[in-house]
Amino acid sequence: MRARGMVWLALISGLSACEDTTEVPGVPAAPRALEARYYNRAVYVTWELAPEWNGESFRVYSKRVSDAEYFLIAQVTNCRASSCAYTDVNVVANTRYQYYVAAVDDRFDVETPSDYAVEVLVPEPTPPPVPTGLEVIALDGALYARWSASSRSATDFSHYRFYQQTTQSGENVSFFVGETDSEGFLDLRAENGITYRYFVSAVDTLGHESAGSQVSEGTPRPDYQGEWIHAHGDNPNRSGFRFRASDSETAVLSGSSPQRHFRLEVDGGGWWLAPGPGTAIHSQGFITSALTCGVASDPDCSALSRAPSSGYVTGRVRLDAQTTYALRVIGDDGRTHYAAIRVVLLGLDQDGNALMIFDWAYQLQADNLALAPARRP
Fold it and tell me: How many whole angstroms separate alpha carbon 145 and alpha carbon 135?
């Protein structure tokens, strides 16, 4: 009897020990800093993790303001760092929604809701007008696209999205290239000899994107035409220029380089051609339709074929598009040479940096006033 009693005591003791390890449901910490915002046909719900968070998941509840009860719309388990997020795309325009989030202990199905709910209005998605007048200008190793500012008629206009279009298996495929808040985009990834097609869309402050503009194309090519530089105040490393005997030589350089023949400057007074050491610029610009007029030129083509012999200044000269400017410079041989640039475009790139696109000609013979395009190698 004594031995049997000892066994029963052992069993009772073991049962008591098991009962002591039974888990008791806990109360998960409530989510904090609950927020919700609308953007581009979706509501983005975010919240922060409490310091006591222990890996619990979260349930997101939503309802229309006119509904009597909330509905469970998602369970989130992939929180990172100290925050969580959920995107609700099942929303209807012109409707107000309310959201709250609850932390969940999945073992016992115990919830702790956020201290408050948030309300969001889903508006009618009305994007800005489609951009018009897209034009692609071919440069040397780059393409510059520009378009009209018609999309800015929308009071909530925000920016543009720029796309490249290609054809794959007989179908048009679009690739996002970048965004800009100006009516211009400089694609430096374009390669000479390859034709690229582009279109642009407009986006408002709530992320609503318009349809794409008409498609325009361009083919960059090595040439003395389509050179470009930035304004010295925006990109000093690419604001200077030196005339070269061949367009295979590097002509664009720092605007602070003592080797520059000129640099581009932009201020509140306009766009300026600023001469470098030893350079003088003719004080008068000449309105032209081309840098040079050759055999295949239009009958009414106008160009500056000969540099003036006098009238040069060593100060800045104001620039205008479609205008040719004559310069007197010191060449690599240390002698005086005459050159000309024709401003094709004065504009802004996608980052808002001022730039000038121009054609140029450089007379290889010292002291010769006749102007000709750069000789090919």
Answer: 6
